[in-house]
Amino acid sequence: MTEQEKAEAEKSWLETIRETLYGMAAHDMSRAALRTRASMEHLFILITMGDLLGVPILPPYYSLRLLPYVVPQIATWKRRMLREKDVADAMF
Amino acid sequence: MNFKDVFLQHPERRYIMFGGGGGVGKTTFSAAAAYWLASQGKKVLVFSVDPQASLTDIFKRDIFGKGPVQIMDNLWAQEIDADSHIRKYQQEIRQKILDMYGMPAVPEEIEHYIQAASAEPAMEESAMFDAVVDVVMKGDYDYYIYDLVPLGHALYYLSMAKVYDEWINKVTKLREEMREYEEMVSRLRREKESEQDQILQELLYIKNRINTSAGILTDKTKTAFFFVVIPEAGIISDTQKAAGMFAQFNVPVAGYVVNRVIPHELLNQNIPEYLRRRIEMQDRHLKDIRTAFDDQVLALVPEMERDVTGLAMIEKLATIMFA
């Protein structure tokens, strides 16, 4: 084993510990934070792009300005807003 | 105080607006005031935010949607074309989507939204509102004269600014909270700084645009708002009502100008009974106007013998207004 390989092994070992610790201590927290963040994201799109669901909220001139940034989220957002409660809600 | 004194005593009031019911002579007065200021050596832009604009008619020049058009020395006129402004704006949004995601075409659903949004009635007002910010922010002129839309629209315009502002504040707050969560995740995962929230930047930009525009409309030091009234029943109470509503939005009303007053000298001539009656009627309404607005009435402008169109007639009217 060369010096470099040794160093790499050590590094990946440290990395594993770091990730394990993260998984034990912080993963749930960050997942919860992300879920809250996602809900807010959907709330945000509802406020700004409400017309897409037929819920007109406000004059659309400035909504259009924001539209490009939320293009990728539109599909999941509509699904989330329109779907009925299902088993998955209890699982996550 | 008369009309001219208001301008002489307050040279810092650079944004001049004429408001009033439909057909009372807002455009005529805008043109006359612009003419007078320009002839005093001030650089003036008179512009219309009215979709049914009539600066083209009054100056006898086709200026619709052509940007600022020079009418004479120091005087430019502009009619904002809301439709083409909206079309250009839509195209910018489409292009931005294509650039951001490298898509060959805008997704159907998004395209529908862009088109549906643009068909809403509020779109035009908002577009005008936004275009005005561009015109005024450049700051190329000494005076900006707004040829306003009829009162109802002007009020809508102002209330919209207020609603927008509150809405943006709320949305911005939500956005900032979202950002806090994002940063928390970044810290937990020991990642580098999360990238800048572009939406938050856009929101702040929009907020700034709205505040600039509404700020001008309600700036007591830089803005003078004149009501145009005519001595006819109904107009006076409407104007009083509107003035009350404007006061709620803190619009600085600088005074009232009465238009279409039939010259009293006619009474010395042999005139038909019909005209005599109309003069008597106007006298009654003028008394009401004096009672209602007191010393805020700045000028009485006579009914002209013919249409005020073309520079010669505008000059004649301006001479009377600024006597």
Model description:
The complex is a heterodimer of chains A (92) and B (323). Chain A has 92 residues and is an all-alpha fold. Helices cover 80% and strands 0% of the residues of chain A. Chain A has helices at 3-49, 61-82, 87-91. Chain A is elongated and about 65 Å long. Chain B is of the alpha/beta class and 323 residues long. Chain B has a domain at 3-85 and 122-152 and 225-321: P-loop containing nucleotide triphosphate hydrolases (Rossmann fold, 3-Layer(aba) Sandwich), CATH 3.40.50.300. Chain B is built from eleven helices and eight strands. Chain B has helices at residues 3-9, 26-39, 55-59, 82-101, 108-119, 121-138, 151-188, 198-217, 235-248, 273-293, 311-321; strands at residues 15-19, 44-48, 69-72, 75-79, 143-147, 223-229, 253-261, 297-302. Chain B has an eight-stranded mixed β-sheet with strand order 3-4-2-5-1-6-7-8, with helices on both faces. In chain B, a hairpin with a 2-residue loop joins strand 3 (69-72) and strand 4 (75-79). In chain B, 38% of the residues are buried. Chains A and B meet through helix 1 and helix 2 of A and helix 4, helix 5, helix 6, helix 7 and helix 8 of B.
